[in-house]
């Protein structure tokens, strides 16, 4: 495939060792399990939905002629104040996603809400996504985008049975969508990102800021971490720019896909 699911390689531990020829890898003979075809042993039914978040991947060419892909509204980029510190230090304003800066693609979740997340992939390339802080129920997959120009089999719509599988990592195939679901019962700041390292580095990610009010009541940052940040010149309070309120001056501009 475009990104093989299996790689082979040679590791040489000794200079002068004979070089062996390794055949080119192929994943065509491998049979990969369908998440929607499996069921969990504890027979937990799909969670009832309180909120839906739909994320559509977008490819675009940056002003520096770089090809980029977004998952949220912008390319994810770290801001001046780590998002966890903003969630802990902004009081009631921590429930407003704007204080984290547009570069974080932050979604603020209410405590114990069941969140239905749909990820749409309108491109040929497969992507593997990893959820921090939660396992998710795999509810369904199906076609998304235009397959007419690609030499591929039609994509089937597949719905999980009565007891869907739980995963923390999912694969979103090209021209497909996937629907997953979880309960926001773990207050914190959690990353959702592509597990291809260069995609994560380039900003294919969003952040879930979960129950910041509950987080402020239950947790605090160890003083050793605060001191470590101070030694590195990293601010530990305020919005994403280290300011109060919605003043985000000092942040570099967010990178939005071209229309």
Describe this structure in words.
The chain has 259 residues and is an alpha+beta fold. Helices cover 11% and strands 26% of the residues. The chain is built from four helices and 13 strands. It has helices at 83-89, 197-202, 212-218, 223-231, and strands spanning 51-56, 58-61, 67-70, 106-109, 114-121, 127-131, 136-143, 158-159, 166-167, 169-172, 176-183, 188-194, 205-210. The strands form three sheets. Strands 1, 5, 7, 8, 9 and 11 form a six-stranded mixed beta sheet that branches. The longest helix is centred in the C-terminal third of the chain and has 9 residues, at 223-231. The chain is globular. It starts with 50 loop residues before the first strand and ends in a 28-residue tail after the last helix.
Mean pLDDT: 90
Structural class: alpha+beta
Provide the β-strand percentage band: 25-35%
- The coarse overall form would be globular
Which oligomerization state do the chains in this entry correspond to? single chain
**Total number of beta strands:** 13
How much helix, percentage-wise, in residues?
10-25%
Low-confidence stretches are none
Number of helices: 4
Q: What letter string, H or E per element, gives the SSE order?
A: EEEHEEEEEEEEEHEHH
| N- and C-termini, Cα separation | 29 Å
Largest sheet: 6 strands, mixed
Report the radius of gyration as a whole number of Å: 21 Å
Brief descriptors of the model:
259 residues, alpha+beta, six-stranded mixed beta sheet, five-stranded mixed beta sheet
Quick description:
The protein is an alpha+beta fold and 259 residues long.
């Amino acid at each position: 495939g475009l990104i093989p699911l299996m790689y082979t390689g040679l590791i040489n531990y000794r200079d002068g060792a004979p070089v062996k020829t390794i055949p080119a890898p192929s994943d065509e003979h491998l049979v990969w399990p369908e998440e929607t075809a499996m069921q969990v042993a504890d027979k937990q039914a799909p969670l009832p939905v309180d909120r839906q978040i739909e994320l559509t991947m977008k490819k675009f060419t940056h002003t520096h002629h770089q090809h980029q892909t977004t998952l949220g509204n912008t390319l994810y980029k770290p801001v001046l104040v780590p998002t966890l510190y903003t969630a802990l230090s902004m009081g009631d304003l921590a429930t407003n996603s704007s204080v984290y800066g547009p570069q974080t693609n932050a979604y603020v979740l209410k405590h114990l809400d069941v969140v239905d997340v749909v990820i749409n992939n309108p491109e040929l390339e497969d992507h593997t996504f990893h959820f921090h802080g939660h396992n998710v129920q795999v509810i369904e997959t199906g076609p998304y985008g235009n397959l007419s120009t690609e030499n591929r089999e039609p994509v089937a719509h597949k719905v999980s049975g009565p007891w869907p599988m739980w995963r923390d990592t999912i694969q979103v195939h090209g021209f497909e969508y996937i629907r997953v679901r979880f309960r926001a019962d773990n207050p914190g700041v959690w990353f959702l990102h592509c597990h291809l390292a260069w995609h994560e580095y380039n900003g294919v990610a969003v952040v879930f800021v979960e129950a910041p009010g509950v987080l402020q009541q239950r947790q605090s940052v160890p003083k050793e971490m605060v001191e470590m940040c101070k030694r590195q010149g990293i601010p530990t309070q305020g919005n994403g720019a280290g300011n109060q309120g919605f003043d985000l001056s000092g942040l570099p501009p967010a990178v939005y896909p071209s229309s």
